[in-house]
What does this fold into?
Amino acid sequence: MKAIKRYVNIFRGVRLPWISMLVLLIVSVIEVTLGLASVELTASIIDASQSAIDGQRLARYAVNLALTVAATVFETYYGGLVDQKIGAGVRVKIWDKLMRLPLCYYDTESANDLVSRVTSDPGSASTYITVGISCITTVYATVTAFTQLFKFHTGLATWSLLIIPATIGIGAIYSILSYHSSLLGTRASAKTVGYMTEHVHNLRLIRALGTEEYEKNKSRAIFKRQYWTDLYSQSTVGYIAISIQVLGCMSLAISFVAGGKMVADGTLSVGTLIIFYGFSSMVSIHLSNLFMAFGSIIGANGTLKKVSQLLEQADETGGGQAVDGEEDIVLENVSFAYKDVPVLSDISCRLPRGKVTAIVGTNGAGKSTVLKLLERMYKPDGGRVLFGDRDVEDYSLDSWRRALAIVAQDTPLMSGTVRENLTYGLDREIGEEELEKAARLANAYDFVMETPGGFDAEVGPGGSNFSGGQRQCLAIARAVLRSPRYLLLDEATSNLDAKCEDQVSTALDHLMEGRTTVMIAHSFRATLAADQVIVMDNGHIVGMGTPEELLRTNAYYQTFARRGEKEAV
It folds into this structure.
């Protein structure tokens, strides 16, 4: 019962196509009814043809056949329509959910698995609805066919009941096979897609390091697993196809072994035998469809298990009042761990408004984690982050993040135009003059204008048609347009050559004017403009003060300064 409730939750909030579903049900019932009528017409024509050809019956049969074809076409169309509409609705729901999940959820889930949740898994969700409709029509067809069987001949109909236990056994085995096939197929597909996505993106690295042969051997193991999974899936399909043939043979044997003797004795007409065989065949086919439907549902359970688990995750909480004005940001006895691995341990500091605070320290010291806590991408495991004298959790998450702008070490660009990238996330119209001003402040105007199309130039995948320095300048221009109160810089000038670093640093100087800034600095020169420098080591704050004070008192900062002077030379 709990499992059923879990899967029903997948459809909660999804706008189901009730009219299309009703039409599909009606058309399916009509198609089954026409099929049953077709059996009786066939038998009556055969019986009547022994004396003369009945043109009226033939005409009725032709009309019935035409209507059956039309009903089948409509059933196929509306079945596909319902399937696609439900799949699209569930896909939107999953994507909306992913947008609301806290960042910590993505630390434990593969990106490729999440892509699969959105792209392929919603197709399994529609199985519940379409199979449900199929079950209704199948039950209707089976009950009607059995009623007709007993109406025509009780003895033969009793023998035909043997099809039911045989179908149940076949359906049970198919359900088990289908579940495992679906589960294994989803995992294998995600593994293959993940491998291909990562390695196609890194083909240059593979070629540069000469690891083609290694990757060939590695890929063979992944593709072999995909091969066996696909083969297992095909075997499942083959099993049910063979089973349907077996049930058909049973129906044939019951009809013509037992019924043939009755025809020979003169107690049963050929037409009645044909009717009996037709209804018996329909029973076996619809019972097969019924248990195939159950197998499909069980198979979908394997695929949708992860989807339901994703939808059950708690959303990122973000209610509260709007951020108004500027205050000092205070970290008070803050501790944090990634997956039980301590990263920050009881750190306390004040980030004064209107000032520039630089954070330096060893790799893994927890510098970037501080910025993530300031962005509220994570919550502290202990302690508090305060805005003035109030906990930041008292403020609306949307309002808080709109008060911030971050320029990271590697800021990716989205697909679309340069203009769309610069205005991404803004809820107001940006005029040409304001756009140009922001680009000039960020030292991006000249190279954007040199690009064919200017602000309307298409951006390559990940911004591949721009250099690292140019991408950083575009990120700075985007931050300028946000007009943030607080600026977070996560090693924004690292991995750039000297010329690009100077260009980006100049743009950052313009951006930092009059704004509260927290920067993770990788160079000594960058810290000299700071009003306060925080030195971190192994999740602790081991020094805090002005650059001049730390040059006198902090050993790490002294070493940091000497290294910076050597690099400058």
